[in-house]
Batch of 3 targets.
Target 1
Amino acid sequence: MDPLPNPAPLASKLRNTLVRYHSIADGEWRAAKKTKDATVWRKPSEEFSGYLYKAQGVVEDVTNRIVDHIRPGPYRLDWDSLMTSMDILETFEENCCVMRYTTAGQLWNIIAPREFVDFSYTTSYEDGLLTCGISLDYGEVRPNFVRGFNHPCGWFCVPLKDSPGHSLLTGYIQTELRGMLPQSAVDTAMSSTLTNFYSDLKKALKM
C-alpha cells in the first residue's frame, strides 16, 4: 500500500494529462455508442491494454451546478445509479480529496461489484470547470469487492457561448476493472455506463 501522495504535483500532472486528451483530434476516435443524451467514442489507451473513452453531450444547466453533482460530495450518491457507496478519506483543500467508492455489479453480475480509491481534483478550465481523478493504491480492499483502477479520467464542463443556461459536458474515462473479464463485456458495460451517466445526471438536475 502506497502512502498518500503530495497533492499539488499530482493535481498538476492530472490536469495536464486531461487537457492533452481534450486536444486529441476527432479522427483518432471511433464511435462506440450514441443516444439522445450523449455520444461515446473510444481509442486505445496509452495507460493500459483497454480503451480511453470520450463521452459528450449538452446538459441543460449552469456549469457549477453540473460539476457539483459530478465531483465527490453529497449529490453524487443520490443520482448515480452505478455508485453504491462513497466516503471521503482525506481532504487536502476544498477542491482536492481522496475518496473511496463502490459500484454495483453489471451485466447480470458478470462484472462483480468494484471498489475504487481515487484522488480527485476540481479546477477552472476556460470559462468552466474540470473535475478529474486517478486511482491510488491505498487502503485495504473490502471483502466481496474487486479493486478496480481508474487511469487519468475527468469531466470538462463549459457553458455554451450562445446559450449560457446550457453546458457542454465532455468526459474522458479509462477504467481498468481488473478481475477475469472478457474484454467484450467490459466494452459493452463502459459505453452503456457513460450514456446512462448523462441520462441519470439530467434527471437529477431537473429535481
Target 2
Amino acid sequence: METSGHGFRDNTLIVVFGASGDLAKKKTYPALFGLYRNGYLPKGVHIVGYARTKMDQEEYHKRTTSYIKNPNNDSEVAATIEEFKKISSYVSGNYDDSPSFQNLARHMEAIEKSYQSRGINRLFYLALPPSVFVPVAKHVKECCYATNGINRIIVEKPFGKDLDSCRELLSSLKESWKEEETYRIDHYLGKEMVKNLLVLRFANVAMGAAWDKHSISNVQISFKEPFGTEGRGGYFDEFGIIRDILQNHLLQVLSILTMERPVSFASEDIRDEKVKVLRAIPPIKREDVVLGQYVGANGKPGYLDDDTVPKDSVCPTFAATTLWIHNERWEGVPFILKAGKALNEAKVEIRMQFKDVTQGIFKDISRNELVIRIQPSEAVYLKLNTKTPGYAFRALPTEMDLTYKKRFTDTKIPEAYEALILDAIKGDHSNFVRDDELDVAWKIFTPILHWIDGKEGPRPKPSPYPYGSRGPKELDSFIEKLGYKRSTGED
C-alpha cells in the first residue's frame, strides 16, 4: 500500500525555522532523532536550525536534545544523541530581512559542497507562529531555494482564523510555493489509529457492511484533556477550543471516517474523497452547539483565574458541535465533535453507536458500539451482547478488545510527527491537508466562530463546568436528544 512520490535518498538538508521554540524542541527535533536512530533519514542528511535567538552551537544542541527520551540512561541511545548533534548546526537571524536568509543560504551551500552528485534536496520546516509564515516562506523562496534539486516546505497549523484569513494566507503562500511543494501538517493525521482507519474500513468486509445510516445511530469524536491552560491562556484566548481542536484535528478524523473508498492509495485519490465528503457538510447551526468554560474546583484554578486571560473572557474551553452529512451513506446520522480542557481524563476516541436491535425477543438490550481509541493506549474494541455463562438465558454486554499494547507487545508505535516528517521526505501528501480541503473546512466552522467572536451580535456566554468534570451539565441532554443511549458505568 505504498503511495508514489519522489523520496529524498541522499544530498538532503532539513532546515527547522523556529529552532529555539517549544514546538521544535518538544516535537520536531525528537521526531527527527527518532527517524535518525531508526535509519529513516536520508543518507548523509544535515539538519540546520534557524531562529532569532542568539546562541552558540553548544546551547543549540542542549535545547534541541532536551526532550529526547532516554529514561534508562541507555549508553547506546546516549551515543546516538551525540552522533545526532554532529549532523546538526545552528544559524541565527531575523524572519523578515533578506540578508539574514542570504547568510543562511551561504551556510547551507558550505555544507552541500561535500555532496558527490549535483542534485540537492531541501526540506524547510516552519515551526513558527502564523504571523511570520508568509515572510519566511517568501524569503526562503528568494534566497534559499535550490534551483538544481527538489524543495519542500512544511507549514504548521493554524491556517488562518476563519475562511477569509485562511484564503488570504493560502494566496500569500502560493505566491512563493507551488501546492505540490507544500505540506500542511496536522499531526493527528500522523497518529497510528487515524492512519489505521483506512485499513479498518476498506480491508474488512465485516466493517464496511455496517458503515452507513442503515446500521449506525450516531457517532461521537471526543478530545479530552485533564488540565487547563496552565499559564498559556493568553494564546488560547485568541483562538479558543474550536479553532484549536475541532476545526482541524477532529474534522480530519471525521473526513477519513466517513469518506468513500478511494480509487487507490495515491495521495490525491485519498484527498479527493476527503474533500468530497466535507463538501456535503453544511455550516454548523447555533442550536447544534454547546459551549463551556471551566471554573475552579477540586483545588484547581478556573480559566478566568489564569493571569494571562482577560477577566471578562467568554472564550469557550469546551465545545460540542453536531455535524450532518448530506449524502446517500450518512443522511440523518449525527456526528458529534466534542473537545474540552480541564476535564476528568485524557482521551481521544471515536465512538460509533449502532441502532437498536429489533425488539421482540430482546428488551432493554445494550446497543453495539465500535470504539477506536486514538490516545492514550491505542485500541479498537467492539461492544456486543453475549449470553451470560451458566444456566440463565440472559444477554450480557461485553467487549471484543484489540488493545495494541497487549496484541503488539514488541512493536513501538512511532510518534505522529515522526510519521509525517517521513511522509514529507518520501514525497507522500496523503496525510497532509490540501488547499481546497482547508477552504471547505473553514466554510463549515466560520459562521459559528463569527457568532462566538461577537461579529454577529452579542457573544454567547459559555456554561460553567467544574475543573475535573465531564463538561457542562447540558452535554448529556444534548447528545441524548441526538439518539445516544448511555451504557451502564460509562463515562
Target 3
Amino acid sequence: MNHNYLCMHDLLQEMGRDIVRQECLQDPGKRSRLWLYKDINSVLTENTGTKAVQGIVLDLFEPKEVDWNLEGFSKMQYLKLLKIRGVQLIHDLKHLPNSLRYLDWSGCPLKSLPISFQSNELIELCMRYSKIERLWKGTKVRL
C-alpha cells in the first residue's frame, strides 16, 4: 500500500482475470467481472448480461460513442461495481441495478440518473466531469 493505493503484481492480476475468463469462455455476459471493451460492448450491444455480472470496469483513454442496448443493465441484478470512463451514450439510460454499491462514471453524459434507480445500497458515487444536474428526475418516495 503506497499513498492510499493498493498495488498488485501484473502476474497476479492476469491470473485473476484468467480465472474470471474461465467462468464462461464463450459468453462474457455470464462472467462475474467485465473489463475489456470488446466484452462489455458485446454484452451491452446484444443484451446478453446476466445475474452473474457483479462488476464492470471500463477505462477508455480516447472517448468513444457507443450504441449500447442499455436495457441490458436490467438483467444484471447483482451488479455492485460500475466504473466507466470515456463513454458517450447514444441512447438514454433508463435502468441501473439497485444493487450498485459503487458508481464511478467520469464524464457521464446523463443529466440525471434513472428514476427507477433506488440508491439504498450505494456507498460511493463519483461523477467527475459529468453533465449531471440532479440525481434523478421527479420526486423519490421511499416506502
